[in-house]
Write a structure and sequence with these properties.
Layout lengths: L29 E9 L5 H11 L3 E12 L4 E6 L2 H12 L4 E6 L5 H12 L6 E3 L16 H9 L5 E2 L3 H8 L6 H12 L5 E4 L8 E8 L2 E8 L9 H14 L4 H18 L22
Bound molecules: adenosine-5'-diphosphate and (4-amino-2-methylpyrimidin-5-yl)methyl dihydrogen phosphate (MP5).
(4-amino-2-methylpyrimidin-5-yl)methyl dihydrogen phosphate binds next to strand 1, strand 2 and helix 7.
GO cellular component, one term: cytosol
Pathway: Cofactor biosynthesis; thiamine diphosphate biosynthesis; 4-amino-2-methyl-5-diphosphomethylpyrimidine from 5-amino-1-(5-phospho-D-ribosyl)imidazole: step 3/3
Protein name: Hydroxymethylpyrimidine/phosphomethylpyrimidine kinase
Length: 292
């Protein structure tokens, strides 16, 4: 009698996967982000960790605030108690060899003061300060009274500060409508003691996205074509985290900000066609390796 039952399907018929590269790698430089969590994943700590990874850095985090946020807006902000932020900072710094630090959303005067104290004690090497004031969707992420603490306490200790145009206006009291105003604001901010000032031009009009850099008194521009995209959520966080990562791997500040500009431009280009969420969407940080 012939067997008429069908040939059994092999249990695993999937093609053999390409083996992942398991060769040992050198110990990476460690970076730290002191920033808020963005539940939508586009900005804050979530963006910072992806930028750190692209530059081959091992990212650590101190969470200052947990935001309930998506591409359309911020619906809640829970500021982490100062004692917890202090313990997170100690846990990271007491064990891991952090070589560069980025700050993002610091939320309150008290947290700006805590970070300034740590910087004054020499515990925050190569400090990149992104003075996050308001989300791209218009929600305040810093209490107004904390602006003075930034100017008086934190900026004098920063290696690099990276305000966007609205942030530079608040920090300097200047109206910024073009490159000459951005240059003047950069000079004002350099007067606080920050070594390298980048006034980012994403919010200015025109066919180019031009950032003004003032590094140890020398001015230059970071200039790229403006990409026509709604997906600009997290560009500022990405730029500052990439700058810290560049410093961590040994780049000079002028090279670090130039590499950060190339990286953010690439992330914007790649995500220009993405449709994630109903508001300004995130960048494409995925699968990019920035050569050192
Ligand atoms: N549409 C765009 N095309 C190209 N570059 C952009 C665009 N929007 C922002 N950038 C760049 O992204 C970086 C972050 O800029 P900006 O948008 O000003 O900061 P923030 O995200 O803090 O508001 C800067 O280098 C800026 O020039
Ligand atoms: C937690 C957190 N940190 C920073 C930003 C700023 O990013 P953006 O200016 O792109 O809204 C944000 N929206 N949320």
């Amino acid at each position: 009698m012939t067997d008429s039952s069908p040939t059994p399907t092999p249990l695993d018929a999937s093609p053999t996967p390409t083996p992942l590269d398991a060769s040992p790698t050198p110990t990476p430089p460690v970076t730290l982000s002191i920033a808020g969590s963005d539940s939508g994943g586009g900005a804050g700590l979530q963006a910072d960790l992806r930028a750190f990874a692209a530059f081959g850095c091992f990212g650590t985090t101190v969470v200052t605030a947990v935001t309930a946020q998506n591409t359309c807006g911020v619906s809640d902000v829970h500021v982490i108690p100062t004692a917890s932020v202090e313990r997170q900072l100690a846990a990271v710094l007491d064990d891991l060899p952090v070589v560069a630090v980025k700050t993002g959303m610091l939320a309150t005067t008290e947290l700006v003061g805590l970070v300034a104290d740590a910087a004054a004690d020499g515990r925050l090497p190569q400090l990149v300060v992104d003075p996050v004031l308001v989300s791209a969707t218009g929600h305040r992420l810093l209490e107004p009274a904390a602006v003075a603490a930034y100017v008086e306490r934190l900026l004098p200790l920063a290696s690099v500060v990276t305000p966007n145009v609205p942030e530079a206006e608040v920090l300097t009291g200047r109206r910024i409508t073009g490159l000459d105003d951005a240059r003047a604001a950069a000079r004002d901010l350099a007067g606080t003691g920050t070594r390298v000032v980048v006034v980012k031009g994403g919010h200015l009009d025109g066919p180019r996205a031009v950032d003004v850099v003032l590094a140890d008194g020398e001015e230059h521009l970071l200039d790229a074509a403006r990409i026509d995209t709604p997906n600009v959520h997290g560009t500022g966080c990405t730029f500052a985290a990439a700058t810290a990562a560049g410093l961590a791997r040994g780049d000079a500040p002028a090279d670090a900000v130039a590499a950060a500009k190339d990286y953010v431009t690439t992330c914007l280009q790649r995500a220009a066609g993405w449709r994630l969420g109903g508001g300004p969407g995130p960048l494409d940080h995925l699968g990019i390796t920035v050569a050192g």
